Structures are given as structure tokens and as C-alpha cells.
Amino acid sequence: MGVPTYTNGTEPTFTRSVAHSSVTSQRPQAVDAANTVSYPSIARANAAVSIDKPNGDAGYSERFKDYTVLQQHVLFWDRDGDGQIFPYDTYIGFRELGFNILFSIFAMLIINVNFSYPTRLAYSYIPDVRFRLYVPSIHKAKHGSDSGVYDTEGRFLPQKFEDNFSKWDKRGDGTLTFWELFDLMKGNRCAADPYGWGAAFFEWMTTWLLIQQDGKVYKEDVRGVYDGSIFWRIREQRMKTKPWRQGYGLTGDYSKY
Q: How many domains does the chain have?
């Protein structure tokens, strides 16, 4: 399957910004995605791909080939592989990533209280008194005001992923600063959507706490958050003598947490 090319060899020839909408020029799309990624506007069911990794993490995608990218994102917390994530599973997962007790409890409450019922709706209208998340229907927990990288079925949209960096990475170095993440969140907000605003804030700030390095989050690390591969890597590294040296603005061993 070949990679589509543009009519002039580098960029599309149609109009991509207009004078009476400044954001169309301030937030340029990733016009070069199709030169590296085959059909970037078509969602990938089980692989998170990018310009830098047009095939994604092949070994990881193969390991979880029967799961969507959104499902892969949460599998780290499915401790026994039964398709259900209990509050305690969420807590343990965050502890293994290096978060302290208070934040892990906070994350458990935010995630399981808010996202249990949407995933439960695939099975029953009755809320789950144990506040489990159901992995097979995790796509029902997709909320508004997000980045749009996951589609409504939990697949991964390469074009949207590249667009987020094209629009908000002002230096073009494949990173986003703390304030650029805020710009990304504000730029993706939907009107009258406080639930989505809050969810996006929690997700991106948790991502910042986990993977920031030198005041930035790096593109391939963010891609690893989308498919969950970086969670396994952090856990594995923290189990070894060499600590995970990203996140929190620190460079030390997080075993004290």
C-alpha cells in the first residue's frame, strides 16, 4: 500500500487558512503527515502511529492486537486481565507509576467514579456499586473537549495526533511546554462542557506529572501515553535499580512514594 503524495510534492494546493478567521493560520495542520504515514486520516484500530514511528511500536501492537488503542491505554490497570478495572486496580497502577498515596487515591476517585457508569451502559442501565471500568466498552467513556486523537470507537487517528503538535508546538521541536498544553486544552474545548473540560485537565496534568522532562513533554512519550506502552516501560524501569527520571520536575528515585 503506497503513501499518498500531494499534487505539488510537499503540501496541498487548496486553501487552509482564511483572513477572517485568524485561528486557521495560527493553528496550522500537519500537512506532511501523509508523506510518511499511509492514509493518516484513517483511524488505526490497534496501533498508535506517528511520522516518527509510522508503524507504531510493532511488538507492543502485536502483543495487544485484539484491543483498540484506547483499550490498550487502560490495560495497564486491568491487573488480572478480566476486562474489569476495580478502584483498587486504579490505585495500584498509579502507585506503580510512582505517584504518591494521596494522588493515587485522588486519581482512583476521579477515574472510577466518573467513568464507571459510561462503560457500564454497555451491559446495564443500573450503576455498578463497585465502580468498575469495563475495558470492552471503554470507548463509551470518551468525553468532549478532548484532543480528538481517539475516535468514538477508541481507534487512533494519526492526523489528529500530528495536528496537536503542529498547532501547539511553536518551536517545531516535537515537544509541548506546560503552557502549550494549556493552549491545547483551551483550543479543543467544546462549548458548555464543564465535564469534558475537567476530564481533559486531569488527563493532561497527570500526563505532565508523569512524563515531563526539562519543562516539556516529548511527542513520542505522548504517543506512548495514548497506547499505554509507556506505562509498562515506566513500571519495568522502576522495578530495576535505575529510576524513572522524568516527571514531577525531579530527577530522583520515586521508590520513596
A: 1
Q: Of 123, 126, 60, 116, nearest to 85 (Cα)?
A: 116
pLDDT at 176: 98
Name which of 127, 118, 98 is nearest 252 in CA terms: 98
Residue 24 lies in a domain: no
- 67, exposed or middle or buried, with CB in 10 Å at 0-12, 13-18, 19+? buried
Q: At a CB cut-off of 8 Å and minimum separation 6, what does 82 contact?
A: none
Distance, in Å, from the CA atom of 151 to the CA atom of 133, rounded to the nearest integer, reads 19
Decide if 188 is inside a domain. Answer: yes
Packed helices 101-120 and 194-211: angle between N→C axes, nearest 10 degrees: 140
pTM: 0.92
DSSP secondary structure string, 145-171? TS-S-B-TTS-B-HHHHHHHHHHH-TT
* Domain membership flag for residue 3: no
Domain that holds residue 111: 31-256
pLDDT in tens, 164-179: 999 999 999 999 999 9
Helix (H, G, I), strand (E, B) or coil at 114: helix
Helix H or strand E segment including 134 = strand 133-134
Q: Is the pLDDT of residue 198 over 70?
A: yes
Q: Is residue 5 situated within a structural domain?
A: no
